[in-house]
Write a structure and sequence with these properties.
Beta-Lactamase; 5-stranded antiparallel beta sheet; 139 residues; 24% strand; alpha+beta
Length: 139
């Protein structure tokens, strides 16, 4: 019984460390550019499991619209990943609109979503996020 308790404690501590690492990773993405509005890791159920909106930023969508957008981002990523054998792996997807740009990156079994202001240098943000993902995934 004592061994099981120790194993559960170790697993709990490991899960907490993983959570903290992912939260720190999301925070580091915010530091790339002041115009980043949202950074989140979205799971296969289109739920934001880490990250969120920058403090002081009001979402442009209500909660249901937001959920639909994440679901569509996930669907788009899955669709394009289905061509990976022919085209190679997906590095990122970008949807640029008048007010915002949505950037989506594969993140292990999930996706990393960013919402940035239309004034943002998306090439700079994209390149730094790709570099950060490479470093983060190799830890």
């Amino acid at each position: 019984m004592f061994v099981i308790q120790i194993q559960l404690k170790i697993m709990s501590e490991k899960n907490e460390q993983i959570k903290q690492n992912k939260e720190k990773f999301c925070e580091s993405i915010f530091n790339i550019d002041k115009e980043i509005r949202f950074v989140g890791i979205v799971n296969k159920n289109s739920e934001v499991i880490y990250g969120g909106f920058k403090k002081g930023i009001e979402p442009l969508l209500d909660i249901n619209e937001e959920q639909d957008m994440y679901l569509q981002s996930l669907s788009n990523m899955t669709f394009f990943q289905s061509f990976s054998k022919k085209f190679g792996p997906v590095d990122y997807l970008i949807t640029k609109q008048k007010k915002i740009t949505i950037m989506t990156f594969p993140y292990k079994k999930d996706i990393l979503c960013l919402s940035v202001s239309s004034q943002t240098n998306i090439d700079k943000v994209r390149d730094i996020v790709l570099e950060s993902l490479l470093k983060h995934n190799n830890k």
